[in-house]
Write the structure tokens for this entry.
Amino acid sequence: MSGVWVFNKNGVMRLQQRLRRKILVHLPTNEVVSSYGSLERILKGLGWERYYNEDNFDHLLQFHKRTSIDLISLPRDFSKFNSIHMYDIVVKNPNVFHVRDM
């Protein structure tokens, strides 16, 4: 377990977890992806296109590449964009993105 052990007034120890926020970095420009607008611009430059599904997935933004079977699915609300989504982007775009601790 990672974190810091702290003592309260009664001398009881507890582990205080350190929450590390993750950020997605575009390696060629060293740009931190801070919005879907910047992410979409970068992905389009890499050949990704918005994917519009007829099944009406209003809660998702999806991108696909014509040259592969990969699909990137992201929550429409950027505040719900987390490390799982970031690592999905990294795996599907090797040597282009990196996830870092903030």
In short: The CA atoms of residues 72 and 100 lie 20 Å apart. The helical segments are 36-45, 83-92.
